[in-house]
């Protein structure tokens, strides 16, 4: 086949891809379904022209189409990594984590259940060996990400529904292809009845090996990309190589799942890339991958659909029965998970609830496509698979794929409509009216400025202003006079609008580089939670999301445990630095929201609602300030360094604005402008570097702030700081139990604790100590100490405390005061012992 003819066919396929999207919009059918239909038509037409004697002129073209080098490896090694990698880059991982239980249930458990169900159903209904039946089950258990994602985006499905479907379709490819590899091996080895237990036991090893391989390769790639961060094309080129290297290394060298490796590599880059790469480079990288994935998804559908007529050439009547068995078993297995396991997990509070309409849509949205056909093609190409099994696998996989695309795909929009998921709820309808009213008010102000600037005719302006004012008045009345909206729903509308503006403000700050790209993902995720919290739970849902945005998460607790138990301070230092920057970013954004309440929301909903929103906003600001103050107390000086960094970045942004204005006014030429921007970029790169948080050095500052040690010289202070160890306690954490033998004294650097003994409680705060009485009294005091706020404690062991006590008059006074408060004999506790030199205190 000539290279010219192949090139012409590929170029023609791109023309088909370009025409398919507007055709799908016109016919109101999913884009993927149109591509599949076009591919089938092209393949069937090629076969028809070769077999008919009506014309021979198109035979060379038909032969070229049927002779295209379409092999399973092309799909699995070229197109599939592209689709999976781009899907991971486009995921909002933090929002996916909110629904990780249903996603994993559908992506892993449902795949295993469907594979086993289809396999045993086929084994019962046919004479095929069990290994071949399970192989077919694995092939048809994977939903196609390009088919599913494109359809749910095209029909404007609810955000949470689309998120669950996208997460499932991405991750279950990995699970299904891993199972496919297992059962393909059994079929090629001629094992008719494999041990299902042995097969599933090997499954986690494929997953773990692929995940580790992808993570390692991605980490190396990210480090290299960070080194070349000033060379955008180099960064993008490395990103293009990443998924293919991960796939090949996992498959060929490690013997693990290449699909899992690609997913792990994409997730790693998604998490690390925004913080390690320049914002513009990261944006351009994702834009390129969007284009590559669009082409790959379209080509994989058309090329796979070209194979369908050939796969169905040998179809028999009894094959339709087996296709029906596959369809019934697949839908039944999926329904068992959706309507059996998920409600059970929700009842046990192990998973967020998924509404019944959502579960019906997920059931009907399990489309198969090019991935299923590619796996089936891999079976038909293998000379080690018996011919009879090749034929059945090809027909059943193709028949089931056609059913899901043509039957489910074309009716999915109708199904969504029947379930009412495409209609706005009353509160969303009211929100849309509010948006129209607010938008028109802004437009009126902008139009007024425009007419003044262009000095238009007053009569024309007056008539058009009157016409526009009537439309505006009507929109405002509709927004205010919604009889079906209760007062609490009006509060919800205001909160949704406020959270939406918060999200817009964050995006503006990111574009201005006032907020770093690394923090943008987190603060945007928090804003999305505020929107969904207000939408689903009103004021209480909004407040829960607001509290969550400043709370210490599980990861922070785990990092604190590593520091307390194993003295590994790296994770805690990184997470603390992230928390510092996150809180500073939140404070920056929240202080800009008051003007939006006064300028927009008050116009629509009146003073009462605006005052309520101001109160809620004030509470959020206070919570952020309190959290920041707690960190400042834990790490004196570090917050100041971050604030200095913020000021430097703001100054550079303003400097850039001035250069742009001078360039537009013609005050400087292109050469001068380019040179100035290069210098600015170097300053900006230095300002982007976040100061390092060294917990060990911060301990010296913590010790210095205690009045007890105020008179120590620097040398003694440094020695004392090394004698202390730092412990972090979360709110509610038990520090000392009632039966604990006292062997340490705790100094509160920040936070607060509550002591309980003999039915009495009292609280201690920053600068105070506890645990000294147990040491001095030489007995268990039966006192329980629990942290009532995130606290940083400096811990000194018994021997060093006793030596310090004999040396420090200030510490003796503190112990005496504490003993007298508790009615103890301070003189007996502070019995004289020989003085020891200060230098021996720490040895």
Strand content: under 5%
Total count of domains: 6
CATH-derived architecture of the largest domain: Up-down Bundle
Can you give the helix content as a percent range? over 70%
Going by helix content, strand content and strand pairing, the class is mainly alpha
Number of helices, counting only DSSP H or I runs of 4 residues or more: 33
What is the CATH topology classification name of the largest domain?
Na+/H+ antiporter like fold
Work out the number of β strands.
8
Question: How far do the termini sit from each other?
Answer: 84 Å
Q: How would you characterize this protein structure?
A:
- The radius of gyration is 33 Å and the shape is globular.
- The chain has a four-stranded antiparallel β-sheet with strand order 1-8-3-6. The protein has a four-stranded antiparallel β-sheet with strand order 2-7-4-5, with no helix packed on it.
- With 843 residues, the chain is mainly alpha-helical.
- It has 33 helices and eight strands.
- α2 crosses α18, α22 crosses α25 and α26 packs antiparallel against α27.
- The protein has six domains: 64 residues, no CATH class; 347 residues, Up-down Bundle (Na+/H+ antiporter like fold), CATH 1.20.1530; 48 residues; 151 residues, no CATH class; 45 residues; 145 residues, Jelly Rolls, CATH 2.60.120.
- InterPro entries: Cation/H_exchanger_CPA1, Cation/H_exchanger_TM, cNMP-bd_dom, cNMP-bd_dom_sf, RmlC-like_jellyroll.
- Keywords: Cell membrane, Ion transport, Membrane, Sodium, Sodium transport, Transmembrane, Transmembrane helix, Transport.
- It is a multi-pass membrane protein.
- It is found in: Cell membrane.
